[in-house]
Amino acid sequence: MSRVQELIGRMLDGVRSGLRGRTPKVLLLLVPFLLHASDPDKDTTAIVQASYIYNIAKLVEWKDPAMKEGPFVIGVLGSANLYQELLKKYATRSIGKQPIEVLKLPRSADVGPCHILFVSPSELTLMPAILKKLAGRNTLLITEYPDALDDGSVVNFVRAQNTLKYELSLANARKHKLEVGLTLKQMAERVIE
Amino acid sequence: MNMARRSLLSLLLVLSVQLLLGQSDLLVNANTAYQEKDLATAKQLLDQAVKDPAFNKTSEAWVLRGFVYKDLYKADPTAAGADLLRDEALASLYMAMETDEAKQYTQNISLGYDYLTKTIFNDAARSLNQMDHDGAIRLYAKYKEMCLRMDPKSAFDARDIEFENALGTVYTKLFNQDRKDTTWYAKAVATYLRVLQRDPDNYGANYNLASLYYNRGVYNIQQISAENDIPSLREMQEVSREFFSLALPYMTKAHNMNPSRKETVLGLEGIHYSLQDVEKSEHYRHLYETLEQDGAPEQPRK
Lengths: 193, 302
What we know:
The structure holds two protein chains of two kinds.
Chain A: H1 3-16, H2 44-58, E1 60-62, E2 72-77, H3 80-90, E3 94-95, E4 98-104, E5 116-119, H4 127-134, E6 140-143, H5 148-151, E7 155-160, E8 163-169, H6 170-175, E9 178-180, H7 182-186, E10 190-192
Helix pairs in contact in A: 2-3
Chain B: H1 3-35, H2 39-51, H3 59-75, H4 82-99, H5 106-129, H6 133-150, H7 157-177, H8 183-198, H9 203-222, H10 230-257, H11 262-274, H12 278-294
């Protein structure tokens, strides 16, 4: 072995230890944040329901003269996310000349005057008392449970083809002095005359 | 042989020996400079040496030059021109391997070369973390090229998957910054699908792709405003339904691979909820609550 080979061999042995065991950094697998249904901003059902409610408000006429004045009141019983969504996107809007007012109602059947009252499935135990309270009143009751139209609801949210739709009872609407527009009837999943 | 001819031969022999000794001194001096950490002098001597036909076929000059350039690079890897130093180091070490017929320096050359290729990979990773996707792609391609130059049989399956998964995540983050522009979304989807084509059981790609589709569907629903009438509301729901439906099989697969991981249980809850399947959504909600109560240890992700 030449002198040069010996020197370089010795030098390499010296630096070798500094090169061993160095493994590449592991790339960070950053998982995108998964949106969650319990977050009001990401509750897709609440967002769609709020839009339906706003559109329903535009497509129905409240016949009682007293309901044509003052704010247009949307009462929400249960469903905090729906309340938040209505407040966020629609509370600054008007129905005709009536500014929308969104109310989060306390858990009680003692409901004050509302143009629209939404009762969430979590409050079903209150339904018999609510139906009694609303009898003959010019209030559009919106629900979200099977056979609700049979119980007296005017609009009921239903699930069809993995989307949210609604069914409509014209008979119940008449009982509550509500004139339902043609578009609302045409777009319903089911209409009970 | 006459006297004159003998004299000439003797002279040439002496000159050759002197020349050889001089050349050897060049390497010895370079080695000394290197060991004394005088990298500039070592570099100068070795640049001179490898241009000399007497040296450019000897592995000693190349291996020494490779290590000098490696250390010059290592002194400040972020400096302007550091890449060129690393390139020179790699090229020199490759030449060293090619000329080391006696296989005297194989192990050291490999160690030095591997070290440098790993720094390229690390740079690619750093670029990804800095959201510089183009830079990362360029560096990763270079990393592979350098590995293949030294070992044409190098396998990259695992590395490719790791890199593509991280690249998909960068594209997803860019999409999340401006969801109106779907360029990054399309790139992210394509990237995760490429991973799944090679490795259908890749947990990260399944989960990430499902989340990407799901988030896109949610974002679409979030765009619903007071301007939407009922027909357009329905259309938007249908568009979102497609994204939720796309998400479902990937999230289900990720969940089946690691049933105790809470993130996929939450994911399935959200997807079924958005697909208006309350029963299944509640099933996963309860499962999530059970996992929370049990404090089930999560299995390591693949």
